[in-house]
From TrEMBL:
This is Uncharacterized protein. Residues 331-341 have a biased composition (Basic and acidic residues). It comes from Nonomuraea phyllanthi. The keyword Transmembrane helix applies. The lineage of its organism: Bacteria, Bacillati, Actinomycetota, Actinomycetes, Streptosporangiales. Keywords: Membrane, Transmembrane, Transmembrane helix. Residues 319-357 are annotated as: Disordered.
Length: 536
């Protein structure tokens, strides 16, 4: 059993100025690098910089499309027949020098009921997509699948009928192949829809994402402009609140050369046929340049290296063996008296003189592990707790788009990072105790923890290799710092180098705990048992 007296004695032995200075310096490095990153990033615009759309729940979203709309009362129905959906992708691979026809998988065209034209306002939409069939989506994060099949087979002879029916806050989406037999895709609640909402046709298309190989197979994402065009007829609206059709962009549009000189986004009506073209996206994404919270913790690698080296060497020190055998080491050097058991130390803390191995009792090894973990946890807590809110505040003041982080998520990241650093410190200490060679323990600890974390944080290795490293090594624990969310209806580079860990935070922490237990348990058991005889 670890007593308060034993822990205090080991803390007293541990707190050499050099060790404390190293921990403080490592924590200050995390803070300094994070603040320098924030101060070095700023956005300047001619006039006020545009802000990312914010949904009703406070999250940053993507909300940019062309909208041909009119007023709709508290009860109403819009029905359309869709006969075509086409698109354009600019400068695609392999040579990045051509404009080609095509649709990205989540290009969208269809009908929508929305709380006005303000970006981020609530909505429900029924649409045809580029590669995922008919979908009903609402309030940015929610996606309901309808019938499968792409838009390639659409025509006047093989159309797709779409219908949205509103009753207060309830919206029902239905689809049909012939306009007579309908199937319900979904019924959803769009909280806060005003008595007079906006209803109409829309088109949007997110950027085309491709990956460029770098390093030893890593990938850097590249995004190109795309546009989607939907063709509709037999458009009917029941329950219209008055006024005519109006066409406008939700968000900025018609600024690229393609839109200026080739095909401007917009809506055109001719002989009862309406053609709507648009670019952008409606979904849980925000701007492509949004900074995630974990980017402010880029100095963690330095602190991790310092912690690993410091405590692997501490665990490998032969001071206890020297103390239990002779007041001097074989080469004549005096031992550190703070590592010699105190004259009044309980007998249970002193190993038997003829005990094999390290010369400190199991209780002392365990107590030192607790001290190592506790000291590192406090240092990590201070470092992450200072830099995360401060750096995010500086980024926002500089006009840099920042992915939103709730207070609870921020606490989870700060405490989780401190816990991971503490576990890495205990793991390194245990390796030092087991291997008894400081440089060997340091090399192994770095190879297990720091190297996987470093090579997966950058686009250096193939994504598959990075994912496996972060599943199978102790570096999996750093998944606790992830704040980005992966959405199936958003195409993105979901890889470790982009801030996406293959395991959830709790699972990554469990992997690190398992490694730490596998090392510390034999390290403690390998130590000699304490002498049971009373001291005379």
């Amino acid at each position: 059993m670890l007593t308060r007296q034993l822990l205090h004695r080991q803390w007293t032995a541990f707190r050499r100025p050099a060790r404390l200075i190293a921990l403080v310096a490592a924590a200050l490095a995390v803070i300094a690098i994070g603040l320098l990153f924030a101060l070095g990033n700023q956005v300047s615009c001619d006039g006020p910089c545009p802000r990312d759309p914010v949904a009703a729940d406070g999250s940053t979203v993507g909300d940019r499309f062309w909208f041909l709309h009119r007023d709709l009362g508290p009860r109403g129905v819009i029905t359309v027949r869709m006969t075509s959906m086409t698109g354009t992708i600019t400068y695609p691979p392999p040579d990045h020098d051509r404009i080609v026809p095509g649709l990205v998988p989540w290009a969208k065209a269809g009908i929508i009921i929305k709380d006005g034209v303000r970006q981020g306002s609530s909505y429900a939409a029924l649409m045809m997509t580029g590669a995922h069939g008919v979908r009903m989506q609402y309030d940015y994060r929610h996606d309901v699948a309808g019938s499968a099949g792409g838009p390639g087979g659409l025509s006047a002879r093989s159309p797709r009928w779409l219908r949205l029916a509103r009753s207060g806050d309830t919206v029902t989406g239905s689809e049909s192949a012939d306009g007579r037999r309908w199937s319900t895709v979904g019924t959803v609640t769009v909280a806060g829809l005003p008595e007079t909402a906006q209803v109409g046709l829309f088109a949007t298309s997110p950027g085309d994402l491709t990956l460029r190989e770098v390093g030893l197979g890593g990938a850097v994402e590249e995004v190109r402009f795309t546009q989607a065009t939907g063709v509709f007829d037999h458009v009917t609206v029941e329950g219209a609140a008055g006024g005519g059709w109006r066409g406008e962009a939700v968000g900025e549009m018609n600024r690229t050369d393609w839109e200026k000189y080739h095909n401007a986004s917009g809506a055109v009506e001719k002989d009862g046929v309406i053609t709507v073209s648009g670019t952008g996206d409606i979904g849980p994404s925000g701007s492509e340049g949004g900074v995630s919270a974990e980017r402010t913790l880029s100095g963690l690698l330095i602190m991790l290296i310092v912690v690993v080296a410091l405590f692997a060497r501490f665990g490998a020190r032969p001071d206890a063996r020297r103390a239990s055998r002779t007041p001097e080491t074989p080469d004549g050097a005096r031992p550190d008296i703070r590592d010699v058991p105190a004259p009044d130390a309980p007998a249970s803390d002193v190993p038997a003189p003829d005990a094999p191995g390290a010369g400190v009792s199991r209780r002392v090894v365990a107590a030192r592990a607790v001290v190592v973990g506790g000291a590192t946890f406090v240092a990590g807590l201070v470092a992450a707790g200072v830099v995360l809110p401060a750096a995010l505040a500086i980024l926002r003041d500089n006009g840099v788009p920042v992915q939103p982080v709730t207070a609870l998520t921020g606490v989870r990241v700060v405490v989780g990072v401190a816990a991971v650093l503490a576990l890495c410190a205990v793991l390194s200490y245990g390796l030092g105790v087991l291997l008894r060679r400081g440089w060997v323990a340091i090399a192994l600890a770095l190879a297990l923890v720091a190297v996987p974390y470093a090579v997966t944080a950058a686009p250096f290795l193939p994504d598959a290799a990075s994912r496996w490293l972060l599943r199978l090594t102790p570096a999996a624990g750093f998944a606790v710092q992830q704040t980005a969310v992966e959405y199936p209806q958003v195409v993105a580079h979901y890889a470790p180098s982009a801030g996406y860990f293959p395991l959830p935070g709790w699972a990554g922490l469990a992997v690190l705990c398992a490694y730490t237990l596998m090392v510390v348990w034999p390290a403690v058991n390998r130590a000699p048992r304490a002498r049971t005889a009373s001291r005379r």
